[in-house]
């Protein structure tokens, strides 16, 4: 028996910082970049004396990182004890395992299913974790080989390529002691996607949820109670692993896919936070019986619009540090910060409304919508009004321009907030790049996703304009990534992705 589940990475295109506080909303797109968790038994059959065992074995492998860790899992408390590891263990994976096993025990009450759960646990757990290349930065390797910063070069990398660590010597060479290796990432929410994939695979494998096709929606994702349990357990595990209760939009996107998101009340995880995840059976019983008050309503980009991400290669940014600085600014200047947040909220709502209007127009007037968008994809925004020849086309162009204006307003207030808080939410180098991008033919939106900084830039283009933008970014020293929007959330896969050709975003990308 083998179960493979996957969960997507995310891009927050609106709602940065505001999404930390209810009832502010964020627009988050799930992506073609996915984490996969492969769960199978460690041994094929039960030993004769297994009924007397208090512990079972767990092995976690991360081939891309050349990591392997083995644990003993308490069958009573669902807690892990590390027995050996070639590299440092991953707290997100550990919490995902512990919370998932505890949740299965808490929710499965039928005797027959409980017996099946016990047998599965006694056979041990083998968990293999794989992340699409899009989550990691290969920029240094590409530059070291003298290759161009282009999508074609990224496309030439084998799926699930090995990841290079950036290691530094601590306290000089006298001690010979190394700092914990740091992996260069692209800011797609790897820890949330990884945690969610492990939770989903384990809960399905252990019989606590059913993520198979009969219970799936037309988008290819399971629905209802099963997904809600995956969400509750993944959020809990992720928050305990990172040591704080975040907004949770990244985990929500990994579970449910592209959406308009309003965070859950932090009090929901108060019991887990207070115990630091200990007393797991009690903590999980509390979590699964609580009413989660997050809101996730369906949202995705209108047709003929392409999400494009670029890696500037300017060092990366610590999101927790930036969030901390913004919160300190809020406390020191409550009047100004409240005014800025209010303006940001208005601009975010305006962008969302225009994108929803455009989606509706694409359904009500499909031919005219497609004609306008394809025409605008070949023109700079100043000439878009020239393509409209009737009232429906004029409405489409008006909404395109209004969405563009709203995104510029968002950028303005995000820059103001960054200056006031003393953090580079939209650094000058990004501003120049984004301004140039917005002036290109067929570009609707451009910005820094999420908390901003130096991690990445995004653009939303019309028709086939993404190729020209990618080329311009390459020439400017920005590495265009292969990742695109994919509105699916967590999914059950039919096989280990290494046994078939996995191409993230390749099927939906055209490279000239």
The number of helical elements comes to 16
Overall outline = globular
Main sheet characteristics = 9 strands, mixed
- In round numbers, the mean pLDDT is 89
Spans where pLDDT lies below 50 across 5 or more residues = 168-181, 214-221, 502-512
Q: How big is the Rg?
A: 23 Å
Strand count: 15
Helix % is: 40-55%
β-strand percent reads: 15-25%
Distance between the termini: 43 Å
Structural class of the helices, strands and pairings? alpha+beta
Task: Explain briefly what this protein structure is.
This protein is α+β, with helices and mostly antiparallel strands. Helix content is 41%, strand content 18%. InterPro entries: Erg8, GHMP_kinase_C_sf, Phosphomevalonate_kinase, Ribosomal_Su5_D2-typ_SF, Ribsml_uS5_D2-typ_fold_subgr.
Describe it:
With 512 residues, this protein is of the alpha+beta class. It has 16 helices and 15 strands. The chain has helices spanning 91-107, 111-122, 139-144, 151-156, 172-175, 190-205, 225-242, 249-256, 270-275, 280-289, 319-332, 334-364, 366-376, 391-421, 428-438, 466-475, and strands at 3-14, 25-41, 55-62, 67-74, 80-85, 125-131, 165-166, 182-183, 259-262, 295-298, 305-311, 443-447, 457-462, 479-480, 491-493. Strands 1, 2, 3, 4, 5, 6, 9, 10 and 15 form a nine-stranded mixed β-sheet that branches. The protein has a four-stranded antiparallel β-sheet with strand order 12-13-11-14. Strands 7-8 form a two-stranded antiparallel sheet. β4 (67-74) and β5 (80-85) form a beta hairpin. α1 packs parallel to α6, α6 (190-205) packs across α7 (225-242) and α13 packs across α14. The longest helix has 31 residues, at 334-364. The radius of gyration is 23 Å and the shape is globular. The chain starts with a strand and ends in a 19-residue tail after the last strand.
